[in-house]
Records
---
Amino acid sequence: QPMAQLTKLGKDELLALVAELQSDKAALMRQCERLAESKEGYDVLIQSLENQVQSMRDSQAKELAVMYEESLTARSEQEYSIAVLRLENQRLKDEIAAYAVFQEQNETLQAALSDLHKQAAEREARYAEEMATLKD
């Protein structure tokens, strides 16, 4: 049907229609060029945003790696402190045990010394008695 309508038009009308179509085509071509330029601009913007996102991800990954290393260091320091405290605790327990042994030995020695003092006093008393009896 559109072809039937075109065949009814005269030469001047067809030329005017062709000119109008060419004008429309030119306008559409300009619009396509503008859209292509806009697309290129958006592509550049998108690439820039993607680069920023990747940069942020890289920064976050580095920060997480640093934090992880710091946590490992802190954990190692804590484990070292715990080991030192355990050794110190064991040393103190050993000293307390040694003190208890020394205390027991001291008590034994004091008892032995007390017995010796007692024996010496008894001997001295006996000698004094013997001396008194010898003088008589």
Note: The mean pLDDT is 94.
---
Amino acid sequence: RIYYAAVVPFAIPTEEFFSFEALWKGVILGLGPCILGKVFCALLAGDSRFVIGWGMATRGEFAILVAHSAYTSTLVGPMAFSIVLWALVCGWVLPPFAFRMVLKRFLAEQRANEEASEAQP
């Protein structure tokens, strides 16, 4: 862990990473396949579908290692690597907040349903 925590940040091509092109493409990639793809996969999971979907959306720690390996072995160039990094950043930053909101709403609905069922004789 410590090795990758030190190696991966120093491998980021800063000129490409901070370009507008990498940012907008990374955000599109991050919102689509990285986040919404996982949320939509859970639509058939019953009442807790959005809790499950948003809970899955925060996963992506291994993807940074795969992206770094592809970049260092020259399978992808600096721009593609930067785009993937922005996509992963979106996948790490946004889903926890959405997950918290969805979980609070789900738990409130569960409590309301329990109270309603207890109130009925």
Note: The helical segments are 2-11, 14-17, 20-41, 49-57, 61-72, 78-119.
---
Amino acid sequence: GMILHGNAQAAEALMSCVRMGWMGIIIGPPACGKTTLVRALAGATGNVLREVAVTSDTDTTDLLGCFEQVDLQRRVRGFLASVIASISALSRRLLLSSSGGQRRTEELSAARELDARLSTVRRTCIALQENTPGSTASGGE
């Protein structure tokens, strides 16, 4: 479809919203060209338009759906648990290495440093656990 001269300002405003990733809201009386404008802009820009009929009975959940709450602390604890496992594995590998001389000294030093960092990560996990409502600190992994 074509965009009529009378709708040019509305078309420019809507395109600005699209460029900035904003939701554009078009209002007006019935049959004033709202749908035609959006269809024309979608066609002109090569975008797929998904139309949804909205009535006074339409609820926000009809449009947006339902969202699950995300427990970010649980995700952080899971990530930290994987960091602990990785650091532990690397530290074991360094300690069990069969290198000799200067390289062995460097590996043992690196293993000590990893062990110190591992203690910090474990303390962080315990602190997170203690600060999570409804949980008990176990200190375990």
Note: Residues 101-130 form the longest helix (30 residues).
---
Amino acid sequence: GNAIGSDSMEDLVRTIQRYCPDLEELNLQDTNIGRCSCDALASLLRNPSSRLSSLDLWSCSMDDDCALLLADALRYNKSLQFMSLGGNNFTWKGRKAFSTLLCNKSSIEET
């Protein structure tokens, strides 16, 4: 897999927000993503002007902390329709963060 350092991921997110605001698909499959990179991705997902509809994070060595950050960010996202998360290092804690979000009927209109 690839490794994108936290500085590089922050630069990538800033570049997307500044120069590619219409980006709809981002494939980071098999990229080793650390905690700081998850913070940067979460900020992209929280951005109300983001048009990202597909995010592939398959096999990115993400852990429960990343899952919690991303799940929280998704509460504010209106554009994402597809997100691939398989092959990561989530335990029940990380999976629960996403299932709680997906099963929350009160947020259906918000998510």
Note: The CA atoms of residues 68 and 96 lie 9 Å apart.
